[in-house]
Specification:
This protein has 71 residues and is α+β, with helices and mostly antiparallel strands. It has four helices and three strands.
Length: 71
């Protein structure tokens, strides 16, 4: 759901309740500027964005060692 910032300000309680069940994208001048999501959706929201960033054959130790070696 896309909602402009003025509407969010004027009806914050309504959108806070809606955010528990769906993602709300807040816009300003027609451009997305923020996202309001419920707590229960936070983990899946973050993990969805991380999929594909780290190859599946890399374990935590080798990723850490590689990162430290570059410093």
């Amino acid at each position: 759901m896309f909602v402009n910032s003025t509407e969010i300000q004027n009806n914050f309680g309504k959108y806070l309740e809606l955010a528990s069940n769906q993602e709300i994208v807040i816009t300003r001048n027609g451009l997305p500027i923020a996202r309001l999501i419920g707590v229960k959706n936070t983990i899946s929201f973050l993990s969805d964005r991380l999929v594909g960033l780290v190859p599946s054959d890399v374990d935590e130790k080798s990723a850490r060692d590689g990162r430290l070696a570059r410093q």
